[in-house]
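Raw record, unedited: Peroxinectin A-like
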Amino acid sequence: MAKSTIAKLKSLYKKVDDIDLIVGGIAEVAQDGAIVGPTFRCILAEQFIRTRAGDRFFYDNPGQPSSFTKRKYLPGMTNQSVNQISNSLC
């Protein structure tokens, strides 16, 4: 966080604990090419994890009729050929 931002927050708030989440999150500096700072990054990641886990129709959740399986969608492919494709893409 920039020193000027810290000085501004100190002038507006008596204690660090008084700073609102939104204000503090917006004031954070994004790192490593991110759009948001570490606090919002953590909140967004947690939300995506919970949304995925709570969606019974998400293709990757096991044990559902809509679950993605290699056998169901890629019957002619072996594990080795699927791994080769995924390794070339990632």
